Amino acid sequence: MVTSQHPITVYIKRVKETTLMQLSEINPVLSESLGWDTESAQDEEMVTFVKRSVVYSEITLPKSEFIKMKNDEYSDEYFAEQIEPKMITDDVMKDFGDMYNEYAVFEGDISSMTDDVMGMCDFKWEDTITNAKIQKVKFAL
To answer: Would you kindly state where each structural domain of the chain is located, as residue ranges?
Structure first.
């Protein structure tokens, strides 16, 4: 018989239940103010594919230019305007990034709200297009 000198503690994590709201339940005034085309989003004859991908780009530059960017008052703007446009993604980097692609398919034309759906909805990413199933837009509140 094996006994333990230390009691085993079991923790049960209580998960807050998330309320899912169908697109048709969203207040039309809110939808309109956000620029959502809810009529197109509920078109059962259309689907919207969304691909999440990883992109690796690179650039080699003098350390002095990096230091200049870091010391610039608007370093984010400097990077976006002076450095990022010069960055390249070669075929090897593209292939490496493509290994991490994921897909989701939604019922309707959600192109007027895709960014909001990505941030506020409950949905599942799939690692291949063939595994992707059509999902309804459901906002997690």
So the answer is: 17-53+101-141, 55-99
